[in-house]
Design goal:
The chain is an alpha+beta fold and 744 residues long. 21% of the residues lie in helices and 26% in strands. Among the domains are: 213 residues, tricorn interacting facor f3 domain (Immunoglobulin-like, Sandwich), CATH 2.60.40.1730; 115 residues, Zincin-like, CATH 3.30.2010. It contains 14 helices and 32 strands. The strands form seven sheets. An eight-stranded mixed β-sheet has the order 5-4-9-2-1-15-19-17. The radius of gyration is 28 Å and the shape is globular. About 11% of the residues have low confidence. Bound molecules: zinc ion. Zinc ion (ZN) binds next to helix 8.
């Protein structure tokens, strides 16, 4: 997701930085000053040599954290402790401490058959749905959980944002294993964020043959327990009214455009770490979904154009020969072709006003969600993207990366059909210029940066939303943009989500940084590759300098935040700047720490290992540790678990005999190596690095000695701004100019 409100939240930047320190801030050990003079200055390359033994990085949590005793005079980052649930998964062989999936890794799978009908006159979507839910876990399940996310619009449902009340999802029939289930009377239990232990159902759940709906989650008691490797068939009949724009900022209708997202009853995730994960949808933090197969028939008025996740199975039934020819031309030539024009909506045209309905049939395998958009006002542009090489080829040679269960290897295309749907309005004028083109650019650029886009199409749709965009597999729904560079950035962001989380299926609700932060970083890479940096215009958060400014300004104002927090419990004013921009900056710092090549390899290795699977944060951390051959606990702990900011400063620079003593201070809380540039009178620049171990040893101050000749004229910390230091004003020392005339 992105929102236009991504710009800096309203924060009082006049607050002095001294108000910034969190209570964990320790006293500054003055005794440490100058005690660790390292005669041997370390060049940057020195640090990269001699990696810590590649020992397992995350570890089971002890009863009490010994590092919390604060023996040193400053807060020091402790180890990365796993949750007990993750340690249990390691013991069971579904996870490892290398970042690879365990040998016994499993993931649940479902097959959906849905027949749905949109009636724009009554404003209702009506559906009949059959789900075959395959239990690949070793656990016997007596109950299953199903999300009814439209209930976020039901009266009385808990919400974190104001939302229109539509009545939610009306269930007409619920059946399991061929037998109808009846609603259960339950004591009201407040929705819980807590995951339930594996194989244990939450208390107060319905008996076999009954179902209970609490907010956006339905629990269904099975008459016959679902054994490992067995499946159960659920049948549901339901209807709902898509919420009026801007709804929850993710779907709904605006009169002309209907977008069905989070629209059908969907199985909750039962994973190998937490078991059932049924955090309610509260119209704020995002989603967690298992891969599934879909066979969906959508019936709409014949004047409507439809596109959806998956491949259209009956184009000859719903598209005229002229439209099909245009699509083929777009795919063959790579030109942007107007497939459906305003003329097609004139009397006699292929989408002209008339009676009747059409049924659009889509199928797709191994994907985490299905959504669709429909409109009788859109024009439709199409082109193609060339992603070079197939996913299968990309998989080959990647150690430990067998064909992941979530990606249908047979569908990996070299040519991706790009579609863009929008209205010819002034507010959406940028779409006419670049809707299709920018979508194509994003697919091609990110396929190059990460790995090839695996699906046959990517479609962008304008409508419903009034701020930013929302991602769905193969689809994005977005606000009307008049500014082309902003549209390009927004499309890069939502298209970026086709990798994280659409392929790499992290839990977006509990770890928003895992999809939003990684995507935000990727957006900056893609936009820089196409439009360069620095650049004028567009959205500030689509570039690394812009992301840095948003994060640093916020942290400097005393609003630093940790990244390892549940999205629904996170301060709303910090949600975007921390999960998105801080994470992107942390990744940029990691890139500088590891070097471009190692970082890139780590990112892609992590992604490929977890395509079609459910990575946890430890899998991300441990993969980078393994790929880099370094123990980066201090980095993960500092940047993901602690609300610590980076502030490195220069102290006195003094000539002492034949050397110059440069005092470097770590006045912030986040320990990082110090990159020094020492400029001399002869124009040479010496690069030095103070290793992070100096700070991790408890020091706050460190003296670096360099030869005094040729004269040192300037010393600067991190001149390229590779690290997100919150105060650059204390990072430069320049030799005072010698007095040339009567000084005063
Ligand atoms: Zn996003």
């Amino acid at each position: 997701m992105s929102r236009a409100a991504d710009a800096s939240p309203a924060i009082d930047t006049s607050r002095p930085p001294s108000a910034r320190r969190p209570p964990t801030s320790g006293r500054v050990p003055r005794g440490a000053a100058g005690s660790g003079i390292v005669a041997a200055m370390l060049a940057a390359a020195c640090l990269l040599a001699g990696p810590s033994a590649a020992r397992a990085q995350s570890r089971p949590a002890p009863v009490t954290d010994p590092s919390a005793t604060l023996e040193a005079g400053r807060p020091l980052p402790g180890p990365v402790y796993e949750t007990p649930e993750f340690s249990r998964a390691v013991a069971r062989g579904t996870r490892t401490r290398t970042g690879r999936p365990g040998p016994r890794y499993w993931i649940q799978h479902a097959r959906y058959r849905i027949d749905a009908r949109l009636d724009p006159d009554s404003g209702r979507v009506t559906g009949r749905e059959t789900v075959w839910y395959l239990n690949r876990s070793p656990d016997t399940l007596s109950r299953v959980a199903v999300y009814l996310r439209q209930n976020v619009f039901a009266p009385g449902s808990p919400r974190l944002n104001p939302a229109p009340v539509t009545g939610g999802l009306e269930l007409d029939r619920v059946a399991a294993g061929g037998a109808g289930a009846a609603p259960a009377e339950l004591d009201p239990v407040p929705p819980s964020h807590a995951a339930m232990p594996i194989t244990e159902a939450p208390p107060g759940l319905p008996d076999p043959g009954r179902y209970a709906v609490r907010g956006t989650v339905m629990w269904l008691g099975l008459r016959r327990p679902l054994l490992p490797d067995d499946s159960v068939r659920l049948e549901l009949a339901w209807s709902y009214r898509p919420a009026p724009a801007p709804a929850d900022g993710r779907e709904g209708h605006d009169g002309g455009v209907w977008y069905m997202g989070y629209w059908y009853p969907q199985m909750a995730v039962y994973d190998d770490v937490e078991g059932w994960v049924t955090d309610p949808y509260l119209d704020w933090a995002e989603f967690y979904m298992d891969p599934a197969d879909y066979d969906v028939r959508l019936t709409v008025p014949s004047t409507f154009v439809v596109d959806a996740t998956g491949t259209l199975q009956n184009p000859e039934k719903v598209l005229s020969a002229a439209v099909r020819d245009s699509l083929a031309a777009a795919r063959r030539t790579g030109r942007v072709v107007r497939v459906v024009t305003p003329a097609d909506r004139e009397p006699g045209g292929s989408f002209s006003p008339g009676g009747g309905e059409r049924t659009w049939h889509f199928t797709v395998r191994g994907i985490r969600d299905f959504s669709w958009g429909a409109s009788d006002t859109w024009v439709w542009d199409a082109t193609r993207a060339l992603v070079g090489g197939s996913v299968a080829a990309a998989r080959a040679g990647s150690e430990g990366w067998s064909v992941a269960p979530g990606v249908d290897a047979g569908s990996a295309p070299d040519t991706v059909t790009i579609s863009s749907f929008y209205r010819l309005t002034d507010a959406a004028s940028a779409w006419r210029v670049g809707g299709a083109r920018f979508t194509r650019d994003a697919i091609e650029r990110l396929s190059d940066w990460l790995w090839p886009y695996p699906w046959p199409h990517m479609s962008s749709m304008e409508g419903v939303l009034d701020s930013g965009g929302m991602e769905y597999p193969m689809m994005t729904l977005m606000q009307p943009w008049a500014d082309t560079l902003s549209l390009a950035g927004d499309l890069m962001h939502e298209t970026g989500h086709m990798w994280f989380p659409m392929q790499v299926g992290s839990n977006e609700k509990r770890f928003p940084w895992m999809d939003e932060g990684l995507t935000q970083f990727d957006v900056a890479q893609g936009m820089r590759a196409i439009y360069g940096e620095p650049r004028e215009g567009g959205r500030p958060n689509d570039s690394e300098p812009g992301q840095r400014r948003l994060y640093v300004d916020t942290a400097r104002a005393g609003h630093e935040g940790t990244l390892m927090g549940h999205g629904d419990r996170y301060p709303a004013s910090l949600y975007f700047v921390m999960y998105y921009d801080k994470t992107a900056q942390v990744l940029a710092a990691l890139r500088s720490l590891l070097g471009e090549e190692t970082f890139h390899r780590g990112l892609r290795t992590y992604g490929r290992r977890w395509v079609g699977r459910h990575p946890y944060p430890y899998d991300f951390f441990n993969t980078f540790d393994e790929v880099s051959g370094r123990d980066l606990s201090w980095f993960w702990r500092t940047w993901f678990y602690e609300p610590w900011s980076l502030d490195q400063a220069l102290g006195p620079v003094r000539t002492e005999g034949d050397s110059v003593a440069i005092t470097v201070r770590d006045v912030g809380l986040a320990p990082m190596p110090v990159r020094l540039a020492v400029s001399r009178a002869d124009g040479s620049v010496q690069r030095l690095e103070v290793p992070v171990d100096v700070w991790l040893g408890g020091s706050r101050e460190h003296v670096v000695r360099v030869p005094a000749r040729p004269d040192v004229v300037k010393v600067e910390i991190d001149p390229e701004e590779r690290f997100p230091d919150i105060d650059r004003s204390n990072q430069v020392w320049a030799r005072p100019q010698p007095a040339t005339s009567h000084p005063r």
